[in-house]
Amino acid sequence: MATYEPENSKSINFVKRMRDRAFYDHESVNKVLDAGLLAHVGFKVPQKKSSTESDFEDFEDQYPSVIPMIFCRIEQTIYLHGYISGRLMKALSGPVAGSNSEEQAPKASVTVSIVDGLIAALSPMHNSNNYRSVCCFGKARLVEDRDEKIKALTEIVDKQFLGGKKWEDCREINDNELNTTRVIAIDIEAASAKIKSSFPKDEKEDIDNPEVGSKIWTGIIPIKTVFGKPENSTYSKVEVPDYISSLENRSI
Description:
- The structure is a single chain.
- By secondary structure, the chain is α+β, with helices and mostly antiparallel strands.
- The protein has one domain (19-46, 60-251): Pnp Oxidase, Chain A.
- The chain is 18% helix and 30% strand.
- The chain contains seven helices and eleven strands.
- The strands form two sheets. Strands 1, 2, 5, 6, 7, 8, 9, 10 and 11 form a nine-stranded antiparallel β-sheet that branches.
- Strand 6 and strand 7 (77-83) form a beta hairpin.
- It is globular.
- This is Flavin-nucleotide-binding protein.
- Pfam families: Pyridox_ox_2.
- InterPro entries: Pyridox_Oxase-rel, Split_barrel_FMN-bd.
């Protein structure tokens, strides 16, 4: 089985807390990536030369940058897209400024989280969530091959429709749209999934205490992201296609 198993406890993807909930195999990681519709992408804004031209200084703020993005996965590569001048697009398009090697690619982290339920417990510190999450780490590159770029854009669009062929059900992309859109590939080097699905787990002394148990409800409240009924735009002139109507009542 293909895996991102960390080499040791210092590995970037090693899950230190609640290790029994951690999964490092490709299948577990991919399932969460494929179910999630939104990723949060962490990156470092490139440095620029200072006025002395000998040193590099931080560009803009010192804050870490994390931006929510739609995305897709093709094998073990995550693809993002955006306007050509977008900060994330520029930051992840080229080698790291000031690095010893011109070939050193910028690093990025990608997280996807899905909350599946609330866990209501007796103790305030045992209230929790059921969830599916992944953290992925890798080096980014600008996609310059036209075929790879079109393939990635197609998958990004279709993923939002749970695999429905929306890209095909559009007019053909034009050169201006293609030229002003960048696609970034992040080849996953390390990753971990963390999944929780359980009922509350309180302390035995609280469970056995009638004064506590008789006053406080415990259990789980499921949370689902469910697709609703499609609504026509003001200029739509055709019937809702099957791949869209079939989304109704489906959940991620």
